[in-house]
Amino acid sequence: FCKQGSKVVRQVREESDQGKFRQRFWELSGSKMGNIMGVNKKTDNDKKDDDVSDDEFDHKASNQYGQALKKQKTEAQSEFAKTRSIKQQRESLPVYQVRSDLIDLLREHNVLVCVGETGSGKTTQLTQYLHEAGYSVNGQIGCTQPRRVAAVSVAKRVADEMGCELGTKVGYSIRFEDCTSESTIIKYMTDGVLLRETLFEPDLDRYCAVIMDEAHERSLNTDVLFGVLRSVVGRRHDFKLIITSATMDAEKFARFFGNVPVFNIPGRTFPVDTLYARTTAQDYVDAAVQQAIAIHVGQDSGDVLIFMTGQEDIEATCVLLADRIAQVGEEVPPVTILPIYSQLPSDLQAKIFESSDKRKIIVATNIAETSLTVDGIKYVIDTGYCKLKIYNPKMGMDSLQVTPISQANANQRRGRAGRTGPGACWRLYTESAYVSEMLTMTIPEIQRTNLANVVLLLKSMGIKDLLSFGFMDPPPQDTILNSLFQLWMLGALDNLGDITKLGNKMAQFPLDPPLSKMLIVGEEIGCSSEIMSIVSMLSVPSIFFRPKDRADESDAAREKFFVPESDHLTFLNVYQQWGHNGYSAKWCGDHFVHQKSLKKVREVRGQLEEIMQQQHLQINSIGTDWDQVRKAICAGYFHNASKLRGIGEYVNLRSRIPANLHPTSSLYGLGYTPDYVVYHEVMYTVKEYMQTVTAVDPYWLAELGPMFFSVKESSSDFHAKERQEQEERRKMEYEQKLRDDLERQAKQEE
Ligand code: CDP
Ligand code: MG
Fold it and tell me: Which ligand 1 atom minimizes the distance to the CA of 116?
């Protein structure tokens, strides 16, 4: 399965890389796009996979949104009916039956593990129960989510249920977006946000209770929070902690917190037929589409949920599905195709919850496994894959990889079909693959990703010996050492592994360590304002858009922004020009730039500015001396340095792995290929492409990254060794030639 699996993935990836896949997407998208709600047109910019919508799409979205609002208004006219129905809905959830038992148990115990099927009401109800039981008098009730989407959507739902506006009594907080106020009692947030809060408030005094939701997901931040919260519980006796999970890990969690009780919410699930593929599908997108059509044509009413890997596959599936259904002919009843993934704009995410008189086919990432519950799903199609962040020690960085799921995932996915009645689940892989080739559980993120961020945070909390930190499943020692090395290399840790002044400053920013280093060095050099803009631009998925019918025009518009020596500076240029034009929406439209993205950039920048001020760091501008800006970039990214080897072809200076300029880079576009560059990240397809590249002076590399690079005094050559070898070879050849000449001469004289 794994082997076959990777072949499929490769095939899809290769196709994608050669542009065929994308082309297919473009071709199919055109007129069909109107049939599909929420399918984004891709820009041809491969830079980031997670795209945002273009204008035409926004317009459509806002229309749909407008209609939804209208609908809401009519509903509001019978406010009484609405509140009654919300009350009824709440009371029909399985958790409601055990509400008082749960509250009683919580009076006796400060920590509880709460287990319940997805959809039983854990996420939306537990916070409200705690509030209703009076806990909120002593502080806020926090609820953590591993995913941003879930935090936002659930907060909206609970605000609705409590009949208040989002951001008042009920709010949410995710990185760079705080939608809470003084009056907030129930706060949904990502686990990363709560982890950061422990940095400033180690005992979490503002909270009376925290619910760690979706603990079975074992996200990196949740795993670290486990350790941190265990000590908070030890210190604070007026603090309640509830850990919620799908069944699997519950006992383990309970043991970790000192054998605390496990509370079971009795499930109400219906049988689900499991159907396996006879052979594993070669192309899971195609296989899923075929299966969905077979269901639509041959099965009773009921919605379909397809589990895909990520945005690109989801979009391809939606387009292909719409196309094939159209091909089948008019006798087939219409369907509503709905994608859902984390980067989808939130108003479109909300669509999956709206009722529809047509059959809904939802195409989702594993976000729909447990984080989001959609009622009415009767059929599940499981491709057997998901995207996981995996650390690649050779490259020294994380990358998202399409990976076979675990049995636990597969069973969760299947369970989605049996919530409201009996259902069926089609697995696009064989039964033997499920039994013998899938792992029982997914490896926790902490054991497979880069930990530099977390290590820096723990160090700044004063935890010196990371190996003895209370991890539930400790990360591999090598990974910790690797992260320590990265932080030392950036100057955040000293030779003894203790946090430095620079490291402490870096830890204050919710950014990857290289980015925060770049910002702090930027301030020292006098260009923090410019670096803040660049860092903020890097935080959004995509800046430029490229509508199919105006591809050339939009390419030309993008090229006008190009700064020949740097993609980072190109971003800065875009942001500054937008600012000079009064941050106008029209300007964005005229220049093929996503207005939504730039608005987000501005918000993020504002937040960075606040942190700078809190940390008494200066906000300074260097005007047009952008060489200094490049130097600050180099200070954060010297470890990602490459040297020119051929046209557009570079080789990584440390790993010696070839790396290429991406065709969308400003450096590529203008045919200017500097000898040395640093890059933000690498994207893998058939080739390795450097993403967001900046030309650097080799002397900076030696100055800023002395542990890797040096300049040989005599020859002033950066690659002294190579040069020396060359010289020696030349010398030997020369001596040999001399010897030959002398010999020849001697022979002639004889
Ligand atoms: O957390 P758990 O999976 O146990 O359930 P939940 O997320 O609290 O969901 C309980 C109910 O609320 C489900 O029936 C959902 O359909 C509904 N819900 C909703 O309508 N809109 C949301 N944004 C979230 C939940
Ligand atoms: Mg939940």
Answer: 4
Ligand nearest to the CA of 268: 1
pLDDT per residue as tens digits for the range 509-539: 989 999 999 999 999 999 999 999 999 999 8
CA quadruple 189, 195, 198, 204: dihedral positive or negative?
positive
Dist. CA 404 → ligand 2 center (Å):
23
Q: Which of 304, 358, 306, 351 is nearest to 332 (CA)?
A: 358
Cα 96 to chain centroid, rounded: 34
What's the CA gap between 661 and 638, in Å, rounded?
17
User: What's the rounded Cα separation, in Å, for the pair 267 and 95?
Assistant: 9
pLDDT one-digit tens code per residue, 648-675: 789 999 888 898 988 889 998 666 789 9
Cα of 123 to ligand 2 centre, how many Å?
A: 4
Q: Which of 674, 701, 53, 133 is nearest to 345 (CA)?
A: 53
Helix (H, G, I), strand (E, B) or coil at 253: helix
Lining ligand 1 with CB less than 6 A are: 93, 116, 118-125, 153-154, 157, 353, 373, 375
How many other C-beta atoms can be found within 10 angstroms of the C-beta atom of residue 374? 18
Give the helix ranges, DSSP H, for 372-406.
none
| Among 96, 114, 122, 124, residue to substitute to test ligand 1 (most atoms within 8 Å of Cβ) | 124
Q: Is the ipTM of this complex over 0.85?
A: yes
What per-residue string of b and e applies to 604-628 under the rule 16 or more CB within 10 Å gives b?
A: bbebbbebbeeeebeeeebeeebeb
Which residue owns the Cα nearest ligand 1 atom 10?
121
Half-sphere exposure in the Cβ direction for 23 (13 Å, CA):
6
Mean pLDDT of 632-641: 96
Element (H, E) at 161: helix 148-161
- SS3 for 503? helix
Tell me the CA–centroid distance for residue 126 and ligand 2, in Å.
10
Cβ neighbours, 10 Å, residue 255: 12
Measured from the CA of 153, which atom of ligand 1 is nearest?
23
Per-residue model confidence as pLDDT tens digits over 675-728: 999 999 888 777 888 989 999 999 999 999 998 998 875 544 555 566 666 666
Task: Check whether 178 has a pLDDT greater than 90.
Answer: yes
Which amino acid, residue 116?
G
Q: Please give the Cα distance from 387 to 399 (Å, whole number).
A: 10
Single out the residue of 424, 427, 119, 414 nearest to residue 302, CA to CA: 424
Q: What's the pLDDT tens digit per position in 263-285?
A: 999 877 789 999 999 988 889 99
Cβ distance 509 to 477 under 8 Å? no
- Bridging pattern class, strands 688-695 and 676-684: antiparallel
Which ligand is nearest the CA of 146, by number?
A: 2
| pLDDT on residue 51 | 27
How close is the Cα of 371 to the center of ligand 1, in Å?
Answer: 9
Give the integer Cα–Cα distance in Å for 626 and 623: 8
* Closest ligand by atom to 419 CA: 1
What residue's CA is closest to ligand 1, atom 14?
119
Measuring CA to CA, which residue among 233, 302, 317 is closest to residue 272?
302
Probe ligand 1: pick from 82, 351, 370, 373, max atoms within 8 Å of CB? 373
**Matching residue, tokens 């993205």:** 597
Would you state the structure tokens that stand for residue 537, as one six-digit string? 């631009």
Choose among 246, 84, 46, 98: nearest CA to 663.
46
Task: Compute, in angstroms, the gap from residue 740 CA to the centroid of ligand 1.
Answer: 87
**Hey, what are 131's tokens?**
């509030």
Q: How far is 205 from 239, CA to CA, in rounded Å?
A: 9
